[in-house]
Amino acid sequence: MKSMTRSILLVGMLLLGGCATTDSGSADANDPFESYNRSMFKFNDAVDNAVLKPAATAYKDNLPSFVQTAISNFFGNIGDVWTMVNNLLQGKVEHGLNDMMRVAVNTTMGFGGVLDIASEAGIQKHKEDFGQTLGKWGVAPGPYVVLPLFGPSTVRDTAAFPVNIYGDPWTYTTPVSVRNTGAVIRVVDQRAQLLGASNLLEDVALDRYIFVRSAYLQSRANDVRDGAGSEDDAKKPDGLAP
Amino acid sequence: MNTLKKVIWAAVAGCMLMLAGGAMAQTKQEAPDALIKRISEDVMATAKSDKAIKNGDAHRVQQIVEEKILPYVDFQRTTMLATGRYWRDASDEQKKRLTEEFRSLLVYTYAGAIAQIRDQQLEYKPFRADPSDTDVIVNTQVIQPRGTPIQLSYRLEKKDSGWKIYDINVLGAWLVQAYKDSFASEIGKSGIDGLIKTLAEKNKKLAISFAQKVKQAS
Question: ipTM for the complex?
Answer without folding.
Answer: 0.76
